[in-house]
Write a structure and sequence with these properties.
Layout: E1 2-5, E2 12-15, H1 25-38, E3 40-43, H2 50-58, E4 63-64, E5 71-72, E6 75-83, E7 107-114, E8 122-126, H3 127-132, H4 136-142, E9 146-149, H5 151-154, H6 156-160, H7 164-167, H8 169-174, E10 178-181, E11 183-185, E12 192-194, E13 201-204, H9 209-223, E14 229-232, E15 239-243, E16 247-251, E17 260-267
């Protein structure tokens, strides 16, 4: 495999491997090591079947399903993320996937099916680099804080739609608010990372509302400074894998009313500490 770094903080494009053929166990192990090192990795020209995407994701561990999206027939773990002129994407802000879960995903395996002629890139930010960019005083202050993450907060636009609360009633019941540390330890690299995001984090536990909002807003802006980010430009049949424990991402919704369709699998994780 050949590695081309995308930016100083994170990101690499990987070539020299065919994910549509039988992938050896040593190659899966190498992909995992590359993911921990680069935090998001990208493969082009990979027309994988759902079963092959499933096998790639499963090489990292057990998989999760998502309570709010349609799935592929026969593959309940593969969710369809689709934006059309009639139903444009609602996700606009930086976030980590599914931090409303007690065990948020290790990572995400996303493959492209339909890509607009122009636009539709995805930006990523390294929460490892963002943590390292904080002063020692701020690192120490944040180290003992916890924050609440809430499914209902992240999907408030969907819940506000006609019939949305009824459609997502079970998801709301199954996903009550959870508490995670503001600064978590990556279980494989051992590095510290910032673990709050604007989509799902509601407040910092034990702080007055004004202080909580001010600290979170500071972190949200700090985390996506240009020097901590990279940007992926999609083609059809690309695969992106990102480490959900140490990154945030943001879709660039600049292609309306064009059609964009992606297929996503998330990998089960452990409880942040």
């Amino acid at each position: 495999m050949k590695i081309k770094r995308l930016a100083g903080a994170l990101g690499a494009e990987i070539s020299g491997i065919d994910l549509t053929s039988d992938v050896a166990a040593r190659d899966y192990k190498a992909i995992r090591s590359l993911l921990v090192e680069h935090e998001v990795i990208f493969f082009r020209d990979q027309n994988v079947t759902p079963a092959q995407q499933y096998a790639l994701a499963s090489s990292f561990g057990p998989l999760q399903s998502h309570p709010a999206y349609d799935t592929l027939p026969g593959f309940p773990e593969i969710t369809v993320l689709e934006s059309t002129a009639d139903k444009p994407s609602k996700i606009e802000c930086w976030h980590s996937d599914m931090t409303f879960r007690l065990h948020p995903p290790i990572g995400t395996v996303l493959r492209s099916k339909v890509i607009p002629e122009a636009g539709g890139d995805t930006c990523f930010a390294s929460m490892t680099a963002a943590y390292d960019g904080l002063s020692p005083q701020m690192q120490a202050f944040l180290s003992d804080l916890d924050a609440v993450h809430d499914f209902s907060y992240g999907f408030k636009e969907s819940l506000a739609e006609k019939g949305g609360r009824e459609r997502l009633a079970q998801a709301v019941t199954d996903n009550p608010p959870v508490v995670h540390p503001v600064i978590r330890t990556h279980p494989e690299s051992g590095k510290k990372v910032i673990f709050v995001n604007a989509l799902f984090t509601t407040h910092i536990v034990g702080l007055p509302a004004g202080e909580s909002r001010a600290i979170l807003e500071f972190l949200y802006q700090h985390c996506v400074a240009a020097e901590y980010t990279c940007r992926l430009s999609w083609d059809v049949d690309c695969i992106a894998i990102w480490d959900n424990r140490s990154t945030q991402h943001k879709p660039i919704n600049d292609y309306f009313p064009a059609h964009r369709s992606l297929q996503r699998i998330v990998i089960d994780g452990d409880r942040p500490y």
